[in-house]
Specification:
Elements: H1 2-9, E1 13-16, E2 46-47, H2 52-85, H3 90-119, H4 122-136, H5 140-146, E3 149-151, E4 160-161, H6 196-221, H7 227-246, E5 251-256, E6 262-268, E7 281-285, H8 298-302, E8 306-310, H9 324-340, E9 349-354, H10 358-367, E10 373-377, H11 383-390, H12 396-406, H13 411-415, E11 422-427, H14 445-457, H15 464-474, H16 479-488, H17 493-507, H18 522-536, E12 537-540
Parallel strand pairs: 4-5, 7-8, 7-9, 9-10, 10-11, 11-12
Antiparallel strand pairs: 1-2, 1-3, 5-6, 6-8
Helix pairs in contact: 1-3, 2-3, 4-5, 6-12, 9-10, 11-12, 15-18
Catalytic activity: Hydrolyzes glycerol monoesters of long-chain fatty acids
Enzyme class: hydrolase
Biased composition (Low complexity): 26-43
Length: 559
């Protein structure tokens, strides 16, 4: 009876991974609790095949889940309609509650039938036995056997906890349960006394901003967190996860962040290969509808690096909702996991982000200054201009206030706090982070990210002459136009390097630099500005969602 109950309450099983010929874990690397090897008894090489009873019951419950999701999103309109029609009176609500209770009992019966179907399937019984044994004792052997199954991730045991004693040694004080530290926006009206009357006046605007951010705003900003989209993408996600596990020897792990969210991660270890770049770990931060199963993780994998991918809170196996605080909390535990469980030093970690993933990437760079490098692909400087682009102009005040208070993705501000090497990749046909049309390359917010970074690091070089010539270079939409501008100003790269190296040797590496003082000619500042812009930003002739080829994944320049 206990086994039958476990089958009724157990998670949905998707796939049993095929048997591999030999252990692929590299020698000399400490085995982690989530290392994926093949159970000797595993002989199934296909998606899990449920019996007819389980299959049909699963279909009914999945359909009910979709209807519930649709009802949830449409509930405000439904309540308004029912109120206008007079259906919310007590005489109408009581019969409706009876119907709802009957439906719930029927769904509970379907769930019991599904459990009976699972109980008659030896594959599921073997899986549930391994899962229960792992929850009782998370030994390496139990975790090794559990890793051969792909199932509903909420039942996966936690592999790494943010409060593990060794995980806070190198952090700056460590996060509290309220979350890690974020840069807070300055008040819109500085110097205004924060009296009780002013607070009362602001209250309606604050309530409106909160409601917009937690309903429409968050779902527009992170559509990947919408359940219906995840349901539609589920076959693709399962296929991508199977490829990572079976072909790349990926190791899945669940990390518990300080806010209680569980973060779904996938690690591919290349330290045992002959490729030297395998000693470096690339942590990938996906876009607003990206998942590690099918996202930008493929680029550093093809380039031969060790890779750690993770899903935003509320995406696929990760729990929670993707607000900036939750995003930063998730990124913190991912970096801690890479350092203290996977055994990578910060100097061997590269942060690679695509699109909106630039927020967590720049937060990690700001919070872990010893990280080796940061690569931002198709990212932007600030969310406000992009939010204003898609909303009515009459909403400008509400949109700005909502973003600043609840969805403040201040990438440029965070990136300027990082002292290490940075590479920005600009898509010349980007249709997402341009504020006008894709053909208007000067409206690409990647330009603003570059200018803000260079102006912070080299303020004297990026004075009037330098800023003007870099803007001209950014207007180039092809490599030929770039080369033409570069040659027009006769940039002497050897001279630029000697000037920068001399300054670094005399004043040290910390930014901002005062190189380019008044004793340098305007022509010299132009040359330095163009030289630095070309080193910090590379163009990629593609649209926003085109996968970045492995040959375009390059380590950022540094002296």
């Amino acid at each position: 009876m206990a086994k039958l109950l476990s089958c009724v309450l157990g998670p949905r099983l998707y796939k049993i991974y095929r048997e591999r010929d030999s252990e692929r874990a590299p020698s000399g690397v400490p085995e982690t609790p989530t290392s994926v090897t093949t159970s000797p008894s595993s002989s199934w090489d296909t998606y899990y095949q449920p019996r007819a009873l389980e299959k049909h019951a699963d279909s009914i419950l999945a359909l009910a889940s979709v209807f519930w999701s649709i009802s949830y999103y449409s509930s405000p309109f439904a309540f308004f309609y029912l109120y206008r029609k007079g259906y919310l009176s007590l005489s109408k609500v009581v019969p409706f509650s009876h119907y709802a209770g009957t439906l719930l009992l029927l769904l509970a019966g379907v769930a019991c039938l599904r459990g009976i179907g699972r109980w008659t399937n030896p594959q599921y019984r073997q899986f549930i036995a391994i899962l229960e044994a792992t929850h009782r004792n998370q030994s390496a052997e139990n975790k090794r056997q559990l890793a051969n199954y792909n199932f509903d991730f909420k039942s996966w045991p936690v592999d790494f906890h943010w409060e593990e004693p060794s995980s806070r040694k190198e952090s700056r004080g460590g996060p509290s349960r309220q979350g890690v530290a974020l840069l807070r926006p300055e008040p819109l009206h500085r110097g205004t006394a924060d009296t009780l009357l002013n607070r009362v006046k602001k209250l309606p605007c604050q309530i409106t901003s909160y409601l917009v951010a937690h309903t429409l705003g968050r779902r527009m900003l992170y559509p990947g967190s919408v359940y219906l989209l995840q349901k539609a993408l589920m076959p693709m996600l399962l296929q991508g996860q199977a490829r990572l596990v079976e072909e790349c020897n990926g190791r899945r792990a669940k990390l518990l962040a300080c806010d209680g969210n569980e973060i779904d991660t996938m690690f591919v270890d290349r330290r045992g290969t002959a490729e030297p770049q395998g000693q470096k770990l690339v942590i990938c931060c996906e876009g607003n509808a990206g998942f590690y199963e099918v996202g930008c993780i493929s680029t550093p994998l093809e380039a031969g690096y060790s890779v750690l991918g993770w899903n935003h809170p509320g995406f696929a196996g990760s729990t929670g909702v993707p607000f900036p605080q939750n995003e930063a909390n998730a990124m913190d535990v991912v970096v801690q996991f890479a350092i203290h469980r996977l055994g990578f030093q910060p100097q061997d970690i590269i942060i690679y982000a695509w699109s909106i993933g630039g927020f967590t990437a720049t937060w990690a760079a700001m919070s872990y200054p010893d990280i080796s490098a940061v690569i931002l692909d198709a990212s932007f400087d600030d969310l406000v201009p992009l939010a204003l682009k898609v909303m009515p102009d009459s909403w400008r005040g509400l949109v700005t206030r909502t973003v600043r208070q609840h969805l403040n993705l201040n990438n440029a501000e965070q990136l300027c706090r990082y002292q290490g090497p940075v590479l920005l990749i600009r898509r010349t046909k980007d249709e997402i982070i341009t504020t006008t049309v894709p053909e208007d390359i000067m409206s690409n917010r990647g330009n603003d990210l570059l200018l803000k970074l260079l102006q912070y690091r080299y303020p004297r070089v990026m004075a009037e002459e330098g800023l003007r010539v870099v803007r001209q270079w950014l207007e180039a939409s092809s490599q030929l136009e770039e080369a033409s501008i570069y040659s027009r100003w006769e940039v002497e790269e050897d001279w630029c390097l000697s000037v920068l190296r001399s300054y670094q040797a005399e004043h040290g590496p910390d930014f901002p630099w005062s190189v380019g003082k008044d004793d340098m000619s305007a022509d010299g500042r132009r040359q330095l500005a163009l030289f630095l812009a070309q080193k910090y930003l590379h163009n990629f002739e593609a649209t926003h969602c085109t996968p970045l080829p492995a040959q375009n994944f390059q380590i950022p320049w540094h002296l």
